[in-house]
Amino acid sequence: SKKKKKTKKTINKAKKQMLQYVRRNIKQLKEAIEIVKAQGQRVTQKIRDRIQVAEKIYWQQLEMYKRKVNRIADRIVSFHRPYVRPIKRGKVGRSVEFGAKGALVYVGGFLFLDYFAHKAFSEDALARHHLQVYQERFGKLPPYFVADKKYGTWENRNLLKEYEVRESFKPLGRRVKVERRDERWFKRKQKERNRIEGSLGNSKCNYELDCVKYSGEKGSELWVRAGILAMNLKTAANRA
C-alpha cells in the first residue's frame, strides 16, 4: 500500500534510483548521437545544448545528494531556461519569482533600461552604474538623483556628494531641522518618483512587459527593450 508519510530513508532511496535512471538515459543518448554521427548525419546544436543542460542538472543533483543538502550554487531550476535563477520577492502569495529583473531610470518622462539580468541583484549597488550610464547617454551627470529609500545607504550618499549630484533621501540619524525651501524640493521630487511607479504599471498593462513572449536569454531582454522603446515613442509623439 502507498505510504501517506514517506520516511527519510525512502526519499533518499528514491532519489538514488532517479539519479541512476538519469545517468543511464544520458549515456544512452550520447551513444545514440555517436551512431547518428557515424552514419554521416548532422546533430543540431540545440540537441547538444540540451544534453549539456541535462548533464549539469544531473551533477548538481548528485552533489546535493552526496552532501545531503538542498542548496547549491547556480542551481538550474528550468530545463528549457537554464539561465533563470529564483528571485526572492516576499510578495503575498508569490514569495519567489522566476524570470528577468531590470533596473529602470526615468528621465524627462522617458524610461531607460540600465541593467537587466535573470538573477537576483541588489538595486542599491547600482547607483554608480546609473550615474556612469547617464553620463555616457547624455554627456553629463544628472542634476539630482531620486530613488527608493533602499538606495539611501551611506556609500551612495557619499558617492553622490563626490559627484556633486543632489539627492532626495531622508536624513539618517538624529532628526535635523530642514529649510522650508529644501523640504518643498524634497516633496516635489518624491512626487516625480511616483510617476516612475505609474510608468512601470503602464508598461506592464499596455506594453506587455509582464508577459515576455520571446524565448531565450537574449530574447526576453529584446522583448523588454522593444516594449520600453514603443512606450517612449508614444510619449514623444504625444509631445510633438
UniProtKB/TrEMBL annotation:
Residue span(s) of domain Transposase DDE: 146-214
Originating organism: marine sediment metagenome
Protein name as catalogued: Transposase DDE domain-containing protein
One Pfam family recorded for the sequence: DDE_Tnp_1_2
Keywords, in A-Z order: Coiled coil
Coiled-coil segments: 4-46
